[in-house]
């Protein structure tokens, strides 16, 4: 049995630095009013002794837990299978780590998970929450509001009435990116451009469908098939489209995984890409877009930067205190990032 080595205390650090315990506490907890030479002596003593602040005691002083809940409103299997989530989580993690904050990942498989997440947030374990991949009927926004936790959303929230103005979110220009994709296909001389949507209970999918219709206002409704942002959904929707409109000559898919599934279905049906049917995706996820056959022309959104910005906006609001969270004194504003078309061999 290994003996436990006693942890260094504030008193030990104070003795090593030759200062009072109160001075050590102010330096360790980020307080003001300590002259730099003294603060440097404290920091040196902390390093020499290997002192680690007691988080519970520190929280009593700072009123902060240095922990952020990251809530993904998707089942576990979807989160770990779709590279979109990995990239967004990477951006969030980098920003939180740079500010010495802990990421607490919460996934929602069903309604029992929503209740669990609501209880966790209301329990005061975290300073704020980052939430993404919301669906329109999701109860999470109401649970978060009830818990009173400062929150930044990934993606434009889809609820209406009462709280739209004070909601902070980070999104990409989904509608504009979709318009660019469809205009690119028309510019190639394609005339019967189909669209495979994402899950239409999510605003990103609805916005991309709206962008398609902005350009293809007079298109045959049979040229639109509903997918679900997965490769399997893209494959099924592509077969459906070919059955309805075998003369289609282009497809705009709601994301790269959907496009990858569509490419499989086209290959099975003996359609050459891009000779017979041109294909454009959305996301520019390199593990997908560069490895499809042929490599995928797609609309690029900076997924990792979206994650970084979500975390940055939340931390900025927390640093400004309650007034900033209530929209007073220059609170953080929502951000919509631009998209760009990346041309490869599929269109």
Which tags fit this structure?
elongated, 347 residues, alpha/beta, six-stranded mixed sheet, six-stranded parallel sheet, 15% strand
Brief summary of the model shown:
The protein is α/β, with parallel strands linked by helices and 347 residues long. It has helices at residues 10-17, 21-28, 36-49, 55-62, 76-81, 83-98, 111-122, 140-147, 174-187, 203-215, 231-244, 256-268, 286-289, 303-320, 322-325, and strands spanning 67-72, 102-107, 128-132, 151-154, 168-172, 193-196, 224-225, 250-253, 278-283, 297-300, 335-337, 340-342. The strands form two sheets. A six-stranded parallel β-sheet has the order 2-1-3-4-5-11, with helices on both faces. A six-stranded mixed β-sheet has the order 7-6-8-9-10-12, with helices on both faces.
SSE inventory with pairings:
Elements: H1 10-17, H2 21-28, H3 36-49, H4 55-62, E1 67-72, H5 76-81, H6 83-98, E2 102-107, H7 111-122, E3 128-132, H8 140-147, E4 151-154, E5 168-172, H9 174-187, E6 193-196, H10 203-215, E7 224-225, H11 231-244, E8 250-253, H12 256-268, E9 278-283, H13 286-289, E10 297-300, H14 303-320, H15 322-325, E11 335-337, E12 340-342
Parallel strand pairs: 1-2, 1-3, 3-4, 4-5, 5-11, 6-7, 6-8, 8-9, 9-10
Antiparallel strand pairs: 10-12
Provide a descriptive summary of the structure in words.
This protein is α/β, with parallel strands linked by helices and 347 residues long. 46% of the residues lie in helices and 15% in strands. It contains 15 helices and twelve strands. Strands 2-1-3-4-5-11 form a six-stranded parallel β-sheet, sandwiched between helices. Strand 6, helix 10 (203-215) and strand 7 form a beta-alpha-beta unit. Helix 1 crosses helix 2 (21-28), helix 2 (21-28) crosses helix 3 and helix 7 (111-122) packs parallel to helix 8 (140-147). The chain is elongated, with a radius of gyration of 25 Å.
């Amino acid at each position: 049995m290994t003996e436990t080595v006693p942890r260094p205390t504030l008193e030990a650090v104070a003795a090593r630095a030759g200062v009072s315990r109160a001075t050590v506490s102010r330096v360790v907890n980020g307080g003001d009013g300590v002259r730099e030479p003294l603060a440097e002596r404290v920091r040196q003593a902390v390093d020499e002794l290997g002192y680690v602040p007691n988080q519970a005691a520190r929280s009593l002083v700072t009123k902060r837990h240095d922990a952020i809940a990251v809530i993904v409103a998707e089942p576990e299997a979807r989160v770990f299978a779709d590279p979109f989530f990995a990239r967004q989580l990477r951006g969030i993690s980098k920003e939180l780590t740079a500010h010495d904050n802990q990421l607490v990942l919460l996934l929602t498989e069903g309604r029992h998970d929503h209740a669990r997440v609501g209880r966790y947030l209301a329990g005061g374990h975290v300073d704020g929450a980052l939430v993404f991949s919301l669906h329109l009927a999701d109860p999470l926004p109401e649970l978060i509001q009830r818990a009173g936790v400062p929150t930044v959303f990934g993606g434009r929230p889809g609820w209406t009435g009462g709280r739209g103005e004070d909601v902070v979110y980070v999104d990409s220009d989904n509608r504009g990116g979709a318009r660019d994709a469809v205009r690119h296909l028309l510019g190639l001389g394609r005339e019967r451009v189909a669209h495979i949507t994402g899950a239409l209970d999510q605003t990103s999918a609805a916005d991309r469908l709206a962008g398609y219709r902005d350009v293809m206002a007079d298109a045959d409704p049979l040229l639109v098939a509903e997918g679900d942002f997965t490769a399997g959904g893209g494959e099924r929707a592509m077969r459906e489209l070919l059955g309805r409109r075998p003369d289609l000559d282009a497809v705009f898919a709601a994301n790269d995984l959907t496009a990858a599934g569509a490419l499989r279905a086209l290959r099975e049906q003996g359609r050459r890409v891009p000779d017979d049917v041109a294909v454009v995706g959305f996301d520019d996820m390199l593990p997908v877009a560069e490895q499809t056959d042929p490599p995928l022309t797609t609309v690029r959104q900076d997924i990792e930067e979206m994650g970084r910005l979500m975390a940055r906006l939340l931390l900025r609001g927390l640093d400004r205190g309650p007034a900033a969270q209530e929209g007073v004194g220059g609170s953080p504003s929502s951000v919509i990032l631009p998209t760009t078309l990346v041309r490869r061999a599929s269109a």
